[in-house]
Structure formats: C-alpha cells, structure tokens
Specification:
Helices cover 44% and strands 0% of the residues. By secondary structure, the protein is mainly alpha-helical. The chain has a domain of 57 residues. 0% of the residues are buried. Keywords: Membrane, Transmembrane, Transmembrane helix.
C-alpha cells in the first residue's frame, strides 16, 4: 500500500486561526493602539493602583486564611500521628 505524497508549498493567506492577543496582559495594546503613541504616564496604566487595607480588613483576611488551612493541617498532623503510632506499636514491635 503506497501513500500519495503531496508536496504543495505552504502559502500564507493571512487568516488568523487563533487570536493570541489577550486583553489585560502587558503586551496587549488593543486594536489600533500603539504603545509609542501614548504618553509615558499612560504606558504604565496597565499596572493598577495599590490597594490599601485597614487593620480590621487585614485581620479578617488572616482569619479566613487560617480557617481555610487549619483543618487541612490538623488532618495531616493526626494522620502522621496515627502512622507513627502504627509503626511504633505494630510494625516495629
């Protein structure tokens, strides 16, 4: 069984198969927008302003992090405890 080989040269017709411009990324300027045309102050406008949090908001964030992570940490600690207990009392005795 032979396969027919087609030796056509690739011809670029200019179509876009997948657009790789991602809005919000630093290199994305948008349609009809050139970085060189903008003033220097607006070139860095893609970087958002820093968020200032109060002490209460920071404390609430820390409490939320602890509440989310603590059950997982405790589960691993209890699991390790029972593994070492099993190794000490059953496996190594």
């Amino acid at each position: 069984m032979t396969m027919n080989k087609v030796n056509d040269e690739f011809k670029d017709d200019g179509r876009t198969v997948a657009d790789m411009d991602i809005p919000g990324m630093p290199w994305y300027a948008g349609p009809n927008d050139r970085l060189g045309d903008r003033p220097k102050a607006k070139r860095n406008s893609l970087v958002e302003e820093r968020i200032v949090l109060t002490k209460g908001e920071k404390r609430a964030i820390y409490k939320g992090i602890i509440a989310a992570i603590l059950p997982l940490v405790l589960a691993f600690a209890v699991g390790y405890f029972f593994i070492f207990l099993f190794l000490d009392k059953v496996w190594l005795s």
